[in-house]
Amino acid sequence: MQMLEWSKTYVSNVAGEIATVLALAMWVTSSYRIRRKMFEVFFYTHQLYILYVVFYVLHVGSAYFCMILPGIFLFIVDRYLRFLQSQRRARLESARLLPCGSFELTFSKSPGLYYNPTSILFLNVPSISKLQWHPFTITSNCNMEQDKLSVVVKRLGSWSQKLYQQISSSVDRLEVSVEGPYGPTSSHFLRHELLVLVSGGSGITPFISIIREIIVESTKPDCQVPRVLLVCAFKNSADLAVLDLLLPVNATPSNISQMQLQIEAYITSEGELPTDDNLKLLQTIWFKPNQLDSPINASLGNNNWLWLGAIIVSSFVMFLLILGIVTRYYIYPIDHQNTGETYHYSYYVLWDMFLLCACIFIASNAVFLFLKKEHAVEGKHIQNLEVPAPTTSPGSWFQNANSELESQPHQSLVQATKVHFGARPDLKRILFDCKASDVGVLACGPRKMRHEVAKICSSGLSDNLHFESISFNWNSFFMDTLSRLNMQEEKKGLQIRANSRNKEMTEEMGSGPAGASMKIVSAVITLLLMVVFLGYMMIWSMTPTNTFYLNWFPHVEKKTSSTYLGEQGSTILIYAFPILFIATVASLYLHLVKKYDYDHNSTRFFSRMILSRRLAITKGLLGIVTRTELTFLAMFVALLVWSLYSYMHDMFAFASVEAAQEKSQVWEVKLETAGLSLGLVGNTCLAFLFFPVARGSSVLQFVGLTSEASIKYHIWLGHITMAIFTAHGLCYVTYWSRTHQISQMLKWDKFMVSNVAGEIALLAGLVMWATSFGRIRRKFFELFYYSHHLYVVFVIFYVFHIGFSESCLILPGFYLFLIDRYLRLLQSQKKIRSVAARILPSETVELNFSKSSGLSYAPTSIAFINVPSISRIQWHPFTITSNSNMDSDKISVVIKCNGSWSHELYQILSSPSPTSRLEVSIEGPYGPPSTNFMRYEKLVLVSGGSGITPFISIIREINFQSNRTGSKTPRIHLICAFKKYANLAMLELLLPVSGTTLDLSRFQLQIEAYITQETEPKTVNKSSIRTILFKPNPSDAPVSAVLGPNSWLWLSAIISSSFIIFLLLIGLLTRFYIFPIDHNTNMKYPMPASSSFGMLFVCVAMTIAASAAFLWNKRENAKELNQIRTTDVSTPAPSPASLVYETELESFPHQSLRQATTVQLGRRPNLKKILSEVKEENVGVYVSGPRTMRQEVAAVCSSFSADNLHFESISFNWKRKYLKHGEFRSPELSLLRSEVL
């Protein structure tokens, strides 16, 4: 327990652990691949250095703090001066727009500001983002342009795109803040005889300032400057316009004949110069000055180095003086001997850090304010400047070679330039042809180019080459990030984000930088959460032992039991915090996965473990169970048996002593002990009971599960929990009856266990348990459904029974369930915009709803639907048949008439005069985290009746993926069985209601349809197939994620913030209300009252956090709502003929669904024969239909003769529960997530 120690007189272990965690976060995200591909993650986590330094110093103390003081001291001085400089608005004079999309920004500068070539400047444009600062190379020369400073910006990302749009829209003023300039101390390149400048793309920008410097030096008398060979490579000829920046926007010196410049330009992607018709003009835009603007100058004026020395010296002397005064007149009177044992160890450090920062701020502000007067004088001149009108100059000089550049005497840049089209520079030949004795070689461009130049210079074959390196790490970091953000925004704008990848695409991504970066992040987070979870499970395995109860827990309780949290502090720390930490980190990880479009199942350990497994049981009470599931079930049962044994073994040792004291028989005491042990073991089951029913749980998504697939785990846990609690209650009732203490059943103790509350909780649990058995649930579903809402009563009286402190053992699962349930409630309050309904002759309806463009979901997802005109209470789950990539603004579900609710809906829609508006509420969608079926060579989809619905979304997804460039998709063999010939119309749903422009010939689809109850085709009235379009309503809203596009990020914020609010509320209540009464004795303040406050604060904290996040995101949804109000409603039109009819489907190029379909009448599919004839090596087998069909397919796939068949299943237990009551009663729909290898 030393890990939890925060010593008053020595090293603080807790502070060191926090510092280590923070350092690890910065270290992991600073690795090269993560830094390049997810720069924002690296950038923001690196801001944790402040907390790291604080906790590091608190860990080591003030003495060791002095060892690292010099570096921290100078860094704080520099950081604060940069902050002061950034508060001023810089005077932006003009912008020169180039045809290639780049632009040069020219600022007003103080004449006293000097900088060397290749310096950089950090820019911030508040109108775009107040937080983003981007570094750019300064292209101007302070000797050539004494009152101007220029930088070049290339459009590579969202920030630069927005800046270009603002400038090109002819704004008269643009607010800009700057930091810098920062650069080398001297121009060392002037010492060489020849300069070879090698650049790629925008890497030419640092060389612009170098060439301008050489131009200035060449005009000085008796000055020798190096000859310059500029080798620049561009992708397109339009990029040659960057060479115009070699000359400033104003006139250059009149005499530049002393400079010998040769330019070799290579255009790699074009074979010839474009025609004059395609040439664009150069445009210069001038900005209007403002009295708030000021020229760029050093933050400390012209004598900045002198003032910096003054700040360092004065602030340090001030720090020593104030520290001496504080020590002499405050600390020393308390700690007379300077022993460090009387005055708190951490307070020393806090004083040191506070005084250090205060002294730096005082000294820096004093100097800055003193120099501000000089800056104000220069700022007054800006107000009187005249603004020239925007001008347009001819096309770039390299494109208009026929015009003479008379301003360049003796030699024009055109004459000095040679352009090579469709070629790349032969750097080895160019460098070895340099005959000068002293050649300086500078390279700026892609890494491969720089490495190639460095390798040539270091080869030893040419001793005259001197490789000069100029680091632009800031630029490369930021510009790489801009480029990636731009690509991501283009993906979002098109709404074509692939939610799945086939095996080859995954391997390709895994070998690339983005895949490698996400692999590192995935591995680190998985390892971290595995360690936390294993520690959590270790605690559960140690909880029943005397080692934990007598040694570990008292020590933790001593450290955590305070006047703020009381006795529940230790329980919250041990049992609640780890799982909530896992849920928070998992939410952040899922946000990154979604943001960077990464297939997390390709590397995640949990997903591999869940998806790669053999079937262990195909028939029986447990249903279809895999070996992995059976293994974990056995491990959990072993934990329960171990816990029961350990509790009973330790407590039975004192049974004889207790029997003598109570004057009872030993077996009676053991019976009571057994009842207590069963109750404690039941807590273990209850702690995990609510995890599977949280539909939007980040924990389930992180391990590759969904709530639908996990319902069977909830069923297993529910049966075990109630069996144990029932035995617990029977033991106590028997004991009280035998010992004549039956009155104990009516006891509600104020400070101990409440028996009455336990009995009420047990009765509520028994009612839920009795109505949850299969036969009762199927025959009396409403009884099961409504009685299951007694879980509220069960939880409340369970907490009253054992107290809030002990109930924190089950808090994590119920806490996450409560958040999910409240978010679902908020989502269900919206009325959804119904777009259309497609009515098929098989009494099937496809409903289409408007969807938010930012909502994406995986195939086989489900949505819960409520139609108030039929029933305000009933919510029914249905498979989503649409595809979020193919239908970016629509979402559709299929409803088959098999019950009273669906029949009423069908009658409403199929009536001769159908309703013009359908009021609907939706919860969801809920589904798997990714689509793993893309990894197979072939997919065999086996369905019975309406079990085809999940396969519709799968086929649509594969259809979409097959039309992507370079995408390889599995072949599809769909085997569907229907009772009647008219049910074949359901195959019409394989295409969306609006049709598709995708090429169906790109993927191979084979359909075998079996009609089991009819032996010949029957004529179906074509008019029975029609599409109804609904009228929009101003109150309707599109289907959207309850927390918007960044739902996982918001969920993480809700979990963490609500838990913090809960701790604050419970801490304030305990400290200022309960503790003054009880003093942590637990014998003065009633336990039911503290339990009530605990439950209330959990609900209040969760409601505040979730409601705040929901209302914040509601504004974004309102924008899309405005678009719905202006939607036009077309006249209902009939759909194309169904596959049932003898018509050609001409809209399908190369292959129609009719040609791909084989219909067999009066037969059932021979699944064993069909599956045994599959010869591919990697075949995914999905089944959705009656239980006998699922069990038959599972048995075939699990046989040793079918090693190539992988039984994939997606559970729809929600459907099986809800729809067995009247929807889809005939084919029981359930796909269980498993795999057979």
TrEMBL record:
<keyword id="KW-0479">Metal-binding</keyword>
<dbReference type="GO" id="GO:0005886">
    <property type="term" value="C:plasma membrane"/>
</dbReference>
<dbReference type="GO" id="GO:0006811">
    <property type="term" value="P:monoatomic ion transport"/>
</dbReference>
<feature type="transmembrane region" description="Helical">
    <location>
        <begin position="12"/>
        <end position="29"/>
    </location>
</feature>
<protein>
    <recommendedName>
        <fullName>ferric-chelate reductase (NADH)</fullName>
        <ecNumber>1.16.1.7</ecNumber>
    </recommendedName>
</protein>
<keyword id="KW-1133">Transmembrane helix</keyword>
<dbReference type="GO" id="GO:0140618">
    <property type="term" value="F:ferric-chelate reductase (NADH) activity"/>
</dbReference>
<comment type="similarity">
    <text>Belongs to the ferric reductase (FRE) family.</text>
</comment>
<dbReference type="Pfam" id="PF01794">
    <property type="entry name" value="Ferric_reduct"/>
</dbReference>
<keyword id="KW-0813">Transport</keyword>
<feature type="transmembrane region" description="Helical">
    <location>
        <begin position="572"/>
        <end position="593"/>
    </location>
</feature>
<feature type="transmembrane region" description="Helical">
    <location>
        <begin position="1093"/>
        <end position="1112"/>
    </location>
</feature>
<feature type="transmembrane region" description="Helical">
    <location>
        <begin position="305"/>
        <end position="331"/>
    </location>
</feature>
<feature type="transmembrane region" description="Helical">
    <location>
        <begin position="351"/>
        <end position="371"/>
    </location>
</feature>
<keyword id="KW-0812">Transmembrane</keyword>
<feature type="transmembrane region" description="Helical">
    <location>
        <begin position="790"/>
        <end position="818"/>
    </location>
</feature>
<feature type="transmembrane region" description="Helical">
    <location>
        <begin position="630"/>
        <end position="648"/>
    </location>
</feature>
<keyword id="KW-0560">Oxidoreductase</keyword>
<feature type="domain" description="FAD-binding FR-type">
    <location>
        <begin position="827"/>
        <end position="932"/>
    </location>
</feature>
<dbReference type="InterPro" id="IPR013121">
    <property type="entry name" value="Fe_red_NAD-bd_6"/>
</dbReference>
<dbReference type="GO" id="GO:0046872">
    <property type="term" value="F:metal ion binding"/>
</dbReference>
<dbReference type="InterPro" id="IPR039261">
    <property type="entry name" value="FNR_nucleotide-bd"/>
</dbReference>
<dbReference type="InterPro" id="IPR013112">
    <property type="entry name" value="FAD-bd_8"/>
</dbReference>
<feature type="transmembrane region" description="Helical">
    <location>
        <begin position="1048"/>
        <end position="1073"/>
    </location>
</feature>
<keyword id="KW-0249">Electron transport</keyword>
<dbReference type="InterPro" id="IPR013130">
    <property type="entry name" value="Fe3_Rdtase_TM_dom"/>
</dbReference>
<feature type="transmembrane region" description="Helical">
    <location>
        <begin position="748"/>
        <end position="770"/>
    </location>
</feature>
<keyword id="KW-0408">Iron</keyword>
<feature type="transmembrane region" description="Helical">
    <location>
        <begin position="713"/>
        <end position="736"/>
    </location>
</feature>
<keyword id="KW-0406">Ion transport</keyword>
<dbReference type="InterPro" id="IPR050369">
    <property type="entry name" value="RBOH/FRE"/>
</dbReference>
<feature type="transmembrane region" description="Helical">
    <location>
        <begin position="520"/>
        <end position="542"/>
    </location>
</feature>
<dbReference type="Pfam" id="PF08022">
    <property type="entry name" value="FAD_binding_8"/>
</dbReference>
<feature type="transmembrane region" description="Helical">
    <location>
        <begin position="669"/>
        <end position="693"/>
    </location>
</feature>
<keyword id="KW-0472">Membrane</keyword>
<feature type="domain" description="FAD-binding FR-type">
    <location>
        <begin position="85"/>
        <end position="188"/>
    </location>
</feature>
<dbReference type="Pfam" id="PF08030">
    <property type="entry name" value="NAD_binding_6"/>
</dbReference>
<dbReference type="InterPro" id="IPR017927">
    <property type="entry name" value="FAD-bd_FR_type"/>
</dbReference>
<feature type="transmembrane region" description="Helical">
    <location>
        <begin position="64"/>
        <end position="81"/>
    </location>
</feature>
